[in-house]
Amino acid sequence: MAYQDIIYEVKDYIGTITLNRPESLNAFTDTMISEWVDAITSAGRDPAVRVLVVTGAGRGFCSGMDVKAAAGGREGQPLYSRRNYMKLGVHRVPRALESFDKPYIAAINGPAAGVGMDMASMADIRITSDRARVGMNYVRMGLLPGDAGCYFLPRIVGIARALELIWSGRMIDAEEALRLGYVSMVVPHEELMDRTREFCKQFTQAPVATQFAKRLVWRGIDMYRNLNLEMAEMAMLINSTTPDTREGPRAWVEKREPQWSAE
Fold it and tell me: Could you tell me if 19 and 28 are in contact, meaning their C-beta atoms sit under 8 angstroms apart?
């Protein structure tokens, strides 16, 4: 696919999706959503990608839906004709990520508001510029989170803090986001992408084990303990057949960097 509203690059086992509508603070359109999903799918299939990063071009990470582009587009349509609007629209991103087993990191370079914050919340880990601000500002437009924000945010910051952010709609700065545990790191704005890529390098080792571990963590949140243990046993059994499980201990004994080969 030729990309128009995103930039997708791969280097040193790290794929990077850059939302590329800086004039609108990267508000998303149907085109951007389609391209975003295509890049996630491509990264999932590509053995040259072991970690995927998402960030924004210009001053913003993502300001959510392009309200001007969407305004009036569904007025007057009966409810039944709109029943799959979200499923066939923005929900394609969280649905694509549901089956994406590789580490997915958000580098928040600027404001992430409403759906933009939801999109950041879908990442496994978030790193933010010291200039960034995030907020669940749906309520300020009389709306409620409909893009998995109510699923992810309580799992990141806890129920009480999630509800406070959703009910108030207030924007928080990078330091408060760090105190709440929403982001893992705050870095100087000019260093965001370099620091993010350096941080991600540690996740490029043993890709099969890394991907199984992610699957176990996320599935474990929503399943009974015994089922998770059974899934872990199966994952460990499969992973034990990879050459990486022999190379890792051998490299440790030989005091050298391991050469990971399983994909």
Answer: yes
φ, ψ of residue 126 in degrees (nearest 5): -125, 135
Residues 106/125, Cβ–Cβ less than 8 Å: yes
pTM of the model: 0.90
Q: How far apart are CA 189 and CA 241, in angstroms?
A: 43
C-alpha 67/C-alpha 116 separation (Å) is 13
Domain locations along the chain: 6-203, 207-254
Q: 């998995």: which residue's tokens?
A: 148
Summarize pLDDT for 226-258 with one digit per residue, the tens.
776 777 788 878 888 889 888 888 888 899 989
66-86: per-residue pLDDT in tens? Answer: 766 555 555 667 876 778 888
Provide the CATH topology of domain 6-203: 2-enoyl-CoA Hydratase; Chain A, domain 1 (3.90.226)
Q: What 3 state SS string does 94-130 have?
A: HHHHHCCCCCEEEEECCCEECHHHHHHHCCCEEEEEC
One of 1.25.10, 2.60.120, 1.20.1050, 1.10.12 is the CATH number of 207-254, namely 1.10.12
* Under 8 Å between Cβ of 170 and 197: no
Q: Which DSSP category does 172 fall into? A: E
Fold matches, 6-203 and 207-254? no
CA dist 255 and 260 (Å) reads 15
Burial of residue 115 (CB within 10 Å: 0-12, 13-18, 19+) is buried
What is the H or E stretch that residue 215 is in?
Answer: helix 207-221
